[in-house]
Amino acid sequence: MPPLPQAAPALNVPQAFAEGLRLHEQGRLAEAEKFYAAVLAVRPDHFDALQMLAVVKHAKGELPEALRLISQAMKLRRPSPQILLNYGMILHALSRSDEAIASFDQALKQKSKFAEAHNNRGAVLSALGRHEEAVGALQKAITLKPDYADAHYNMGSALRELGRHQEALASFDRSLKLRPDFAKAHNNRGASLEALQKFEDSLAAYARAIELDASFADAMKNRGRVLLQLDRGQEAIDTFTAALRLKPDDAETWYLRGRHLIDLGRNDDALADLAQALALKPGHAGARFADCIAELAIVYKDEAEIGRRRASYERKLKALADDVAADRLSGDLIPAIGAQEPFLLAYQGGNDRPLQEVYGGMVHAAVSREFSAAPLPPKLCPANASASGSSARTFSLIPTGRFRSRAGSANSTAVGLKSSAITSASPAMVTPTRRRQCATASCIVRMTSRAGAPRSSPMRRTRSSIPVSSWTRSRCNSRRSASRRCR
Question: In order of start, what are the domains of the chain with their CATH numbers?
């Protein structure tokens, strides 16, 4: 009689979970996952195995499964601050950031001195654009745990978004002192240096990030952008190409390479890159604008190509103008407008005015949306000045700039003096008769502020049409002043 098959030995659940946890702490996630799964096969309600397997699934990018597992664990017992922290991190990865912040807040209600919860809360707030709040949360994390490299890094990133680049650099430096091989900190440090136009230092920071992580496509993209600033175009193209091999779904990298190909006169290659960028991100403002400019080549094969390119430029420009007016684009269009202009349109030999009107309207809409209109200066009104004059009379301003007489002749530049009362003025132009009356052949103007500030140094005028107000002329009478001096 053949021997009966022996039953598999019962799994020692505590021992199996402990082994999975040990492997997890060593970063051997695939092996740890097997032990957690084995525990759950025997004990589906094992709380710790559920939540730790959720952490592994989160690290692998299997977010829906991670959320299912940790939600199941939270039904078994009241969640601890650590479970709430992990739950919030998974929610943020699923773009449910407001729920993530609520989860972090619950964790902090149970454990107010939880540095990791303050840190992750600050990181999510920064991702939502609430950078000032993020700085406050991250400062709490750093106060509780001064050697927290991630918190210093997140603090630097939030400060960088606020434009406080010097402070950001100090935070990145503290993070790197604690963790010298922190590639992301090197990358973001390079971004702040780039913003400060320290391009060589920025290039070195990006290079260090790539050295630490050869698959860091964003650092390569950033390095390529700085190479363009340093007029090292071919190196930039090669760097963008390497970044796209690692991350072909990055619309920004396709755009940056395409925009530089336009500058190199490789318009067809540029159009191909920009098409890739717009396929990935149809509303990319910079790519939409560059896609218009790429239709304006330096050299054409024949007259027919000029017509085709011009028609394509007109079609794309009008579509872009409509989207700008309707605010349907993402990203900042203004840097793209400043980087390239449609000046080659003028060399096609056609009537450019209708197209330039569309272009001007589009630029005006983009700029006026980004910047508020400047207030007009107050008008200079002499109503309070006495016609006869007195010793207390003051003169507010001599305007600056080049002036033109009524005859149309250009005159020399007039230099103005600062005044605490009025910032600018536009008095009427002086006729030749008034010039004679005001003795501008050799006129020295002395000015005081209304607050009684010391008089300025006299300024000698050349013979030109200087705008002079009516109450200034009353003080300047060549018939009674042999020295022709205005006081």
Answer: 181-248 (1.25.40.10), 288-370 (no CATH), 429-446+456-487 (no CATH)
